[in-house]
Automatic annotation (TrEMBL), chains A, B, C, D:
Record keyword Transferase present: yes
InterPro entries hit by this protein: Aldolase_TIM, Class-I_DAHP_synthase, DAHP1/KDSA, DAHP_snth_FXD, DAHP_syn_2
Span of domain DAHP synthetase I/KDSA: 91-320
Keywords: Transferase
NCBIfam families assigned to the protein according to its UniProt record, in alphabetical order: DAHP_synth_Bsub, PRK08673.1, PRK12595.1
Lineage, broadest ranks: Bacteria, Pseudomonadati, Pseudomonadota, Gammaproteobacteria, Alteromonadales
Sequence ranges assigned to domain DAHP synthase ferredoxin-like in this UniProt record: 1-66
Organism, scientific name: Ferrimonas pelagia
Protein name (record): 3-deoxy-7-phosphoheptulonate synthase
Amino acid sequence: MIIILKAGVGEADAKELVQKIESTGLKPLYMPGVERTVLGAIGDERVLQSLHLDSDPRVDEIKPILSKYKQVSRELNPIDTHVMLGNHAVGGEKFTVIAGPCGVEGRDQILDVAEMVKGHGVAALRGGAFKPRTSPYSFQGMGEAGLKLLKEANALTGLPTVSEVIEASDVDLMAQYVDGLQIGARNMQNFRLLEAAGECGLPVLLKRGMSATIEEFLLAAEYIVNAGNPNVILCERGIRTFETATRNTLDLNAVAYLKRKTHLPVLVDPSHGTGIRELVAPLSYASAAVGADGIIVEAHMNPKEALSDGHQSLDGNDFAALMSGLRPFVEAAGKRL
Amino acid sequence: MIIILKAGVGEADAKELVQKIESTGLKPLYMPGVERTVLGAIGDERVLQSLHLDSDPRVDEIKPILSKYKQVSRELNPIDTHVMLGNHAVGGEKFTVIAGPCGVEGRDQILDVAEMVKGHGVAALRGGAFKPRTSPYSFQGMGEAGLKLLKEANALTGLPTVSEVIEASDVDLMAQYVDGLQIGARNMQNFRLLEAAGECGLPVLLKRGMSATIEEFLLAAEYIVNAGNPNVILCERGIRTFETATRNTLDLNAVAYLKRKTHLPVLVDPSHGTGIRELVAPLSYASAAVGADGIIVEAHMNPKEALSDGHQSLDGNDFAALMSGLRPFVEAAGKRL
Amino acid sequence: MIIILKAGVGEADAKELVQKIESTGLKPLYMPGVERTVLGAIGDERVLQSLHLDSDPRVDEIKPILSKYKQVSRELNPIDTHVMLGNHAVGGEKFTVIAGPCGVEGRDQILDVAEMVKGHGVAALRGGAFKPRTSPYSFQGMGEAGLKLLKEANALTGLPTVSEVIEASDVDLMAQYVDGLQIGARNMQNFRLLEAAGECGLPVLLKRGMSATIEEFLLAAEYIVNAGNPNVILCERGIRTFETATRNTLDLNAVAYLKRKTHLPVLVDPSHGTGIRELVAPLSYASAAVGADGIIVEAHMNPKEALSDGHQSLDGNDFAALMSGLRPFVEAAGKRL
Amino acid sequence: MIIILKAGVGEADAKELVQKIESTGLKPLYMPGVERTVLGAIGDERVLQSLHLDSDPRVDEIKPILSKYKQVSRELNPIDTHVMLGNHAVGGEKFTVIAGPCGVEGRDQILDVAEMVKGHGVAALRGGAFKPRTSPYSFQGMGEAGLKLLKEANALTGLPTVSEVIEASDVDLMAQYVDGLQIGARNMQNFRLLEAAGECGLPVLLKRGMSATIEEFLLAAEYIVNAGNPNVILCERGIRTFETATRNTLDLNAVAYLKRKTHLPVLVDPSHGTGIRELVAPLSYASAAVGADGIIVEAHMNPKEALSDGHQSLDGNDFAALMSGLRPFVEAAGKRL
């Protein structure tokens, strides 16, 4: 850790801080400069937290050197993690496609779309039973009834299912019905929920918050792993920027960056990432090309009637076109569909 | 609501959509233009949700005319809401100052700071018992023990207390100890929590999410009010932008804008809004000038030893200077301190 | 155009505005609603500018229906534009790769890298002679001497050259030496420069401003085309967001979106778009997959010695790897390298 | 400067870099850590630029310690700069109000508004003759004819005038007619223009770019000062963020921050900063409270007829109300109007 002192802080003060650093067992460094003094601390700088140096009025800035996350870091664990979603290994040689409607809306709706996407060889079925909606007047999901329909779709097609959990106290209920928990963008820093998901053994598909930095995203994953669950799948789903032509700005830089920083698998959600049906396919291809481990896509037999996100959902024809269009890019990336 | 059709959509399709609008009881409008056709729907456009027009592939864009929120809207309810925090009316003639440490860290810590801020005439004491922290390795708060200390501080000083709730299932516990619930920026769209806070009668200090638009902020408040609790205090606490010199970008435009759009009181948090101790006072003055109903400020007897946010906390001297510096601006704004 | 009046504006005022609209020759619409009145204007709404309705205190909001750009719009001109850069058609079947150093630094430097990239079959050589730099103390480019070296590199390799122009008065000078003008992100709204580039016949590679919306980007292109030069190549180079792990956030959504909105070719600059050498290749692949017409990449024989942008420049080995890695993605996209 | 090496870089490589640092005359520091090695360089780190350490593949990150700007820094020059605009000292005890129309549109328009604002005691008159406009189809300003009218307004009222310059080659022309040059947000990094303004003796009102960091803003000012002109006035005018309810997000944090980092005067433009007429007054008050040296405000006798920015312009009544409302806040801030 590098500690930059304010201009004008004298030697006595600096030396006092050096002693504080030394008292934690770290090796201190004292670097008096022309305009200001810089201190260093060599060792596991996480122990320096107890000193609260960033609160010291003599300190201008703290520059950490080590990442704040450990267990999800590729530096400490270079081998790719494979997360088993049913029998499918996310993060392995196969490019993972998870598809299904935004929300479970009824028996026919979910079973029909499950069969359709199954026919195209997807790895898992998605569908929300509890929907976090910006307005209290929007469709809030079917709740447990929706989970039961997901279970039925799983029985029918054999596809593992993934569904969003929006509260810690729902984790056990969800675990009775689905094969993977999704934690949505709005809950990426709902730390109670992260911990509850960490205490459960199910795979967790963790979506990046819409204004979360990559470091915060990895720290959210660290919460889950630290609570005992190593089965975390990261998902880039677009960040909020000044651009309004698209619903979000899909950050594919982040995918390539994450693949270098963490051993966890990384998926992309081009449906939320763009918010525009016609852009889902090209951004899916780009996701494969940039090195993502898969995509999660909204599909609906009749998007016009969808109770949420219809404008970004693919129908049967669109989905067929996506899957055939995707194949050469997946193969170019050295993976299989 | 205005519905813009894609270029090339013909009269037959447009007329079919017109009939759908008519079927909801709204008055439709048909505007064939040179380059594209535009439809209108006059009446309470919220009923149009059931049509899912934004999912229709013939529709290019939907432009709503009415705001999505109702109960928090000044248009529908022009009279300022006063929220009673203990005996203090937030939103009234007195400029509200809420102060205290980021987190409750121990008995002496919280009692000492409570007495200090009480001495300066603040309206309420703040202090977190459950701390949402970016890293799982940071101090997570004292939990219920912290709440008990807040209760003790209240008994000692008479100051009403406000503390952050981070999960729906904690609301009842919190209600035993504190006078106001804070919902933090990271939970602004934790809809279960909003509903739980709505079912409780306590005042709710709702902080703006760090990438929430003003409309989303008001819709989050609408969740609470719609669940039965009209006692909502909004709090601008800085948004996330590209600027990194300050921790967040305090959006005082939003304060002036909110005062025109909603009847709810609006506070400002200059501590999180700047993240820099030296900037807390000038931004507090600016908050009073722009028309805010008050501020919430972090104070600590010894910021150097604070377990969180010490770098932005004021000590006793800083706090005294803030309060005396603030007075003329509050008076210029036609309020009292 | 849709004109939403403020709540409370009465019929007489609305009718006066309707007459103003009618006076421009457009067909007006009058839609009195429950909460507010909405007006419409059918026809070429660009003539409404003269009414300055957005300044009228009775008007709450103006919602334009037509795009503000015309000549660059695919709706008005659906056929892809091919821009000739030397003998190479940008926007055609071949995927365009433009490569070279950030800045021209000396004779050997530019000739060596020109031969290297030529050996890999690139379409054109890039290299800056006038460098816009954030700090006045950074290397500002070789000026005309650099242009002469680019001309020499062109003579040696036959590669057409592209170089940045930073001021209107330099356009004629540049035109003596290079085959294409680059207008950088910082100058995307230097309207004098856009007009000067529009009066010159050379191809213009227009980079998106770092906080420019897609609409502003297209309007900047419209300036050039409107001044008489149809040879505009758009270039997405990353936008500024809250994320700091990468230098910018490369917006590949924008590429797919632009391909649908405009007939102009669209390139991607993954070097500035990421700012990290290791991310250039994966984002180049993603650019090909998303449908870009090509990439522009920084290459340098010895990035360690580069006077600018060395951290994001590829050396000979990196560049060879990029080109061979790129091929299957370009082919998957139905183009040739 | 702190240089963090990549994990796995060995002692030999680190020592080679240490020698390079030593060769520049700086004192190097070698800090081998548990997970990675850190190097330091003590002295004027600006000389390290010549090493291009950020391009070295062994280097993970460079953390500068000193600011990149010098001449505008308060650390190096703690005394407030006063910039003379005519006889008025910007940055002194008087709070500076500059007012006038967005653009000069005609003789009566500019003379009338000049007399109106003069009557309220403003320090200077603003008005654009060359207008940078997003669309090529918008009003582009009157050009030199507009400058002549400004000169006439100056003769009539005695008010010094400020007008925007949009190209380096126009500086001399402008200098014949106006008392201060404005460099607009879109040209904040038009470095040729900064240099040209630096070679001219006139006061320069430099607006912050809409996505410029505070550091980039100060470096732009440094360009002007470094070219020989110390008369720079900074102007915060709102930054571009995700929020679209207001035209920009006025960053008053930046004003308080700038006042601590630089000796240059800092104004605020609440007209562009909000884009909404009704918000101009409250944000003007907040600007005074936060410590700004003044404001620049758009005023027009008949905003409904304004050729640009009418929606954010104040008319005579609004302007009178602003000036009387402003007074108590200016006085609370210890300044005079």
